[in-house]
């Protein structure tokens, strides 16, 4: 198993992949189970990203190992549902990623404006 | 279709299936119910994407499993010692072999030692090489463990099979407990 500190260091320096970013974004709003995550990531990307269950659980596994999300049981056990929620650590990294993206967007906008002028 | 999916889930490592297997199959079933009414083409596209994702996911899961193990097993002291052992053995054996062949005595008994026949010399040469390799490797490994091993948390000794196996089992149990919120024994008792 990946060492937690190493995993976080690695994720801290590496930009998040789109599935990871979408899953985290989906969990910001409310805790969700696997199927709800599938639907929500599709909705958040306006139908552009449709995760397969293999990809989704790969992302979930990685996020659980890094302690960015945590698992908890819901009352609804009819379909082996396990819900996931964002941890404070995960929220912090998501905010850092958003700040990075904002900075990139600002830089790109400035470049485009200067090239047009 | 769930049966086919569960069969393909066997491609994943055991530890993965214990934690996510049922849940993945359940999500797949729900998604299947969602896609079936959308027409045959949409359904087939969905199935292709699912099975592709499953196979790719299994590949990465094994990769992750292998990497997490190899970080503890194949470590720098081991590799450095292996290289040193092989290099020094090759150097001495090569020199020895060249020396004998130069004097054309490898296939003939040396005058000063007629009892060393070629039939005896070759196994002796091989046995000597193996012994030399083991000796150099062992000394280098102990030396490297002292120098390198103390400086990194990741570089752990490899020759502790009992300890390594126990640590692996403990890690797996901890993963299950962390991801399910229940101890492993309880996990099994509930038939999941």
Question: Could you name the key traits of this structure?
Answer:
A: 117 residues, mainly alpha, Arc Repressor Mutant, subunit A, 3-stranded antiparallel sheet, elongated, B: 192 residues, 2 domains, disordered C terminus
Could you characterize what this model shows?
The complex is a heterodimer of chains A (117) and B (192). Chain A has helices spanning 4-13, 18-29, 34-44, 53-65, 88-116; strands at 32-33, 69-73, 82-86. With 117 residues, chain A is mainly alpha-helical. The termini of chain A are far apart. Chain B has two domains: 2-73, no CATH class; 76-157, no CATH class. In chain B, α1 (2-9) packs antiparallel against α2 (14-35), α2 packs antiparallel against α3 (40-73) and α4 (76-102) runs antiparallel to α5. The longest helix of chain B has 34 residues, at 40-73. Chain B starts with a helix and ends with a helix. Chain A binds chain B through residues 1-3, 34-35, 38, 50-58, 60-61, 64, 71-73, 79-82, and chain B through 16, 19-20, 22-31, 49-50, 52-58, 60-61, 64, 67-68, 154, 171, 175, 178-181, 192.
Order of strands in the sheet with most strands of chain A: 1-3-2
Class by helix and strand content of chain B?
A: mainly alpha
CATH first level of chain A: which class? Mainly Alpha
Beta-strand percent range of chain B: under 5%
Main β-sheet of chain A: number of strands, strand sense, barrel status? 3 strands, antiparallel
Shape of chain A: elongated
How many helices of chain B? The count is 7
Give the total of beta strands of chain A.
3
Radius of gyration of chain A: 16 Å
Q: How many structural domains in the coordinates of chain A? A: 1
CA radius of gyration of chain B = 28 Å
Q: Mean of residue pLDDT of chain A?
A: 82
| Helix share, percent of chain A | 55-70%
Total tally of structural domains of chain B: 2
Total of DSSP H or I helical runs spanning 4+ residues of chain A = 5
């Amino acid at each position: 198993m990946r060492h937690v500190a190493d995993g976080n260091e690695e994720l801290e320096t590496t930009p998040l992949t789109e599935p990871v970013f979408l899953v985290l974004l989906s969990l910001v709003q409310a805790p969700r189970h696997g199927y709800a995550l599938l639907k929500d990531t599709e909705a958040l990307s306006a139908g552009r990203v449709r995760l397969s269950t293999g990809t989704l659980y790969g992302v979930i596994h990685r996020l659980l190992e890094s302690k960015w999300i945590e698992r908890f049981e819901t009352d609804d056990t009819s379909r082996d549902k396990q819900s996931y929620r964002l941890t404070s650590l995960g929220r912090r990294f998501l905010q850092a990623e958003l700040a990075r993206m904002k900075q990139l967007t600002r830089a790109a906008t400035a470049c485009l404006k200067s090239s047009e002028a | 279709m769930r049966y086919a999916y569960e069969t393909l889930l066997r491609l994943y490592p055991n530890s993965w299936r214990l934690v996510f297997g049922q849940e993945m199959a359940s999500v797949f079933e729900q998604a299947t119910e969602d896609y079936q009414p959308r027409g045959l083409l949409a359904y087939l596209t969905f199935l292709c994407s699912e099975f592709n994702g499953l196979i790719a996911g299994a590949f990465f899961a094994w990769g992750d499993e292998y990497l997490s193990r190899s970080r503890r097993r194949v470590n720098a002291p081991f590799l450095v010692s292996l290289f040193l052992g092989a290099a020094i053995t090759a150097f001495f054996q090569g020199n020895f072999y060249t020396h004998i062949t130069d004097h054309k005595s490898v296939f003939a008994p040396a005058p000063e030692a007629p009892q060393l026949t070629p039939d005896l010399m070759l196994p002796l040469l091989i046995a000597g090489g193996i012994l030399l390799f083991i000796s150099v490797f062992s000394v280098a490994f102990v030396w490297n463990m002292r120098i390198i091993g103390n400086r990194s948390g990741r570089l752990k000794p490899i020759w502790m099979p009992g300890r390594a196996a126990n640590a692996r089992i403990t890690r797996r149990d901890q993963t299950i407990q962390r991801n399910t919120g229940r101890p492993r024994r309880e996990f099994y008792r509930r038939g999941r």
